[in-house]
Design a protein that fits this description.
By secondary structure, the chain is α+β, with helices and mostly antiparallel strands. Helices cover about 55% and strands about 5% of the residues.
């Protein structure tokens, strides 16, 4: 237990930025228990004040609930954030000790009948016309969320519903922890220089550093500490910044196979086996949907999304699949032909695809990812990204290192100013991979949301989390081009969070935005990585300062549509599998999830997956994230984002005035509106019409 008094507990601070440098696992339980007690008391008072629904107002319903939300933002959100970026056994134990009660309190709030009746009264009386559009959206969504939280259930049904919610929360956490532990536990240590022949210098440095920091139990520490990138040993892991370049460049086919098989079977056996959790999660989600009167969990999911229903999603899937299938098969034929010509006698296997894809890219476009990497140092990329945002949106981003408490020495803090030089927002950037304590992938999350509490405006603060290649020795972080795109992507999410003008927490930034529209700003920002002035402003050699040569830029642009059919089909595979598991699949039926995985692959994967492929056991997006029956959102929003970027193309990308004017319109519609306006209306505000798939297919070279 923490010895800190409530006033000293860093999770109970009411002002400023969260004191990440002082938060310990021992602080979690006492702080959360105090907030739970305070919340219970506050809900009792709210319900008493609403005993007569006719007395309901905005201030005694939504406004007081937003105040409660702010308490949780400052106490619980830092805990869940640290679970992702500074995981430890002690933090897990503290988090899990209070999680059931946190989930129960969330349901207690959403299942409050006095609040529910009061909100319906506000919706159904003349008071409705006095509310702004964001306020009306918030009330509508609170009512809908209460219904989806089981407020219409009674007795044993509601008790079972709440038990399911608690179980699902625990299972989600366990799933994520298992993936992290399985990733952390696997390693491939090589000592023979011939085994690493052909691997990029950057990867060798990273693998050597990984070995020296995480000494293998099979090698004496004295040897490990003496390891060098040139002589080894080298430690390869399943962490993406290491695993992907290894598969792309390792010339030893058996070693590629070893790592690939480990990657697609992560968290599928032993103590970290997620297979039983998948079955349990799907069964519980299906049961929850049934309790609510829906035939599938997908139907529940889509009630709060932009897509009109499962059929609309499946129609998009098929449109994109038909446009991609032949191209994907041609991509595979090209790889097989190159592998055969190059002397590979064995049939092309899954662990060959990335390797021969890189060889084909090199021969077709005469460059590699490693040729580009020296031109993309993190600091230079950040400068170019911030310069672009200044041109498009009129904002200025300034480093504020040392002005904010941080959870790791690599973390940086920045402040955003508007055109009048007023402080508008802030954000943390945690850029590098740390597989021992930080989950993989990249994400943006809220630290503080823009809202007005007791007349005071709280400015938004974002967490931008990446897993890019870290610095090695004296060499700065040199990014792959994909890592550059990922940074732009996450900053797009951050922009929607930070540039909102809505001052109600429930509709501020990404809050209240339909899930299948929330990727619009992030995917929109990726397009600028191929904009000549933007990219050439970023890409300078970290040693010489030389600008990326024009011919390399041209090759990069030509390579943009390289294997576009295959990449489209890969994403469709994930989305179609997710939707099938949450709509058609019956966990109590004869089929297994792995059999479903194989059947979907027949429609989307020209190169069939291994029979022993267990990638679902590591599919955190749908089993430990927010994308259950919603993975399609990436493609749905990509349709929106491609069409949005085409507005700049139509205006003229070489016309600085037109770009600036269009950028301000994007800022004042898509970025400003948050969840306060339906995304289709927001899109029409910006584009003047509804979106179509033509721009996406054109950008991918599939039309």
């Amino acid at each position: 237990m923490s010895n800190a008094t409530p006033a000293e507990n860093p999770l109970l601070t009411a002002e400023g930025l969260p004191p990440f440098d002082r938060i310990t696992p021992a602080d979690v339980e006492p702080a959360v228990r105090e907030i739970l007690d305070a919340t219970a008391t506050a809900i009792d008072k709210i319900e008493a004040d609403l005993s007569d629904p006719g007395l309901a107002t905005w201030d005694n319903t939504i406004a007081v609930l937003e105040t409660l939300g702010r308490n949780w933002e400052r106490s619980w959100s830092p805990v869940t954030h640290l679970m992702g970026v500074a995981n430890s056994d002690e933090l897990r134990e503290a988090h899990d000790s209070v999680l059931p009660d946190v989930v129960a309190m969330g349901l207690r709030i959403r299942q409050s009948r006095p609040v529910f009746i009061a909100l319906k009264h506000l919706r159904d009386t003349s008071a409705w016309e006095t509310f702004t559009e964001p306020q009306q959206r918030i009330i509508h969504e609170r009512i809908r969320d209460a219904e989806l939280a089981g407020i219409g259930l009674d007795g044993e049904q509601q008790e079972r519903f709440n038990d399911i919610a608690s179980q699902l929360s625990q299972l989600s956490t366990s799933f994520s922890n298992n993936v992290l532990d399985a990733t952390k536990a696997w390693e491939l240590v090589l000592t023979d220089p011939s085994d690493v022949d052909g691997l990029p210098d950057t990867l060798l440095q990273l693998a050597s550093q990984s070995h020296n920091e995480n000494c293998s139990t099979e090698i004496e520490s004295s040897q490990a500490s003496a390891g060098t990138p040139e002589q080894g040993p080298w430690r390869f892991t399943l962490d993406v910044p290491i695993a992907m370049p290894f598969l792309q460049h390792c010339r030893k086919r058996d070693l590629r196979e070893t790592l690939y098989r480990a990657y697609v079977t992560r968290a599928s056996d032993g103590e970290t086996d997620n297979a039983p959790l998948i079955d349990e999660i799907l069964a519980l989600r299906r049961e929850r949907a049934s309790l609510l009167g829906y035939t599938s969990y997908a139907e529940v999911s889509l009630t709060s999304k932009m897509a009109m229903g499962v059929e609309a999603v499946e129609e998009m899937f098929e449109t994109l699949r038909e446009a991609s299938w032949e191209a994907g098969n041609r991509d595979l034929d090209d790889l097989r032909e190159l592998a055969t010509k190059s002397g590979q006698q064995e049939p092309l296997a899954q662990w060959d695809a990335a390797f021969w894809s890189e060889r084909l890219r090199e021969s077709r476009f005469d460059f590699t990812d490693e040729d580009l990497r020296p031109y993309f140092s993190l600091d230079r990329v950040l400068d170019g990204l911030f310069s672009l945002c200044h041109r498009l949106f009129g904002i200025t981003v300034e480093a504020a290192d040392g002005q904010a408490p941080i959870w790791h020495e690599d973390v940086r803090y920045f402040i955003v100013h508007d055109e009048q030089q007023n402080e508008r927002a802030g954000f943390y950037l945690d850029p590098y991979s740390r597989p021992e304590t930080k989950r993989g992938g990249a994400w943006m999350n809220e630290c503080l949301v823009r809202c007005r509490i007791d007349g005071q405006l709280q400015l938004p603060v974002a967490h931008l989390i990446c897993n890019s290649t870290p610095p090695v020795g004296d060499r700065p972080s040199l990014m792959t081009f994909r890592e550059v795109e990922t940074l732009f992507h996450e900053f797009g999410h951050g922009l929607q969070h930070m540039m909102t003008t809505v001052e109600h927490a429930d509709a501020s930034g990404i809050n209240g935005v339909e899930w299948d529209a929330v990727e619009l700003p992030s995917q929109f920002m990726e397009n600028w990585c191929y904009h000549r002035p933007t990219l050439l402003g970023i890409a300078r050699h970290y040693e010489t300062g030389e600008v990326l040569p024009e011919d390399l830029f041209e090759k990069l642009c030509r390579a943009r549509t390289y294997r576009a059919g295959s990449l489209m089909l890969r994403q469709l595979n994930f989305g179609m599998l997710d939707m099938h598991l949450h709509h058609q699949f019956d966990p109590a039926g004869e089929d297994t999830v792995l059999e479903v995985q194989q059947r979907i692959a027949e429609q989307t994967s020209p190169l069939p997956p291994l029979p022993e492929n267990r990638f679902l056991c590591g599919f955190q997006h749908i089993f430990a994230g927010g994308y259950a029956a919603g993975y399609y959102s990436y493609k749905w929003a990509e349709v929106l984002s491609a069409d949005a970027f085409s507005a700049f193309e139509d205006a003229g990308l070489d016309d600085e005035h037109a770009v600036t004017e269009t950028g301000r319109r994007f800022r004042d519609t898509v970025l400003a509106s948050g969840g306060g306006r339906h995304p289709m209306d927001v899109f029409r505000d910006f584009r003047g019409r509804e979106p179509g798939t033509a721009a996406l297919l054109k950008h991918n070279g599939l039309a």
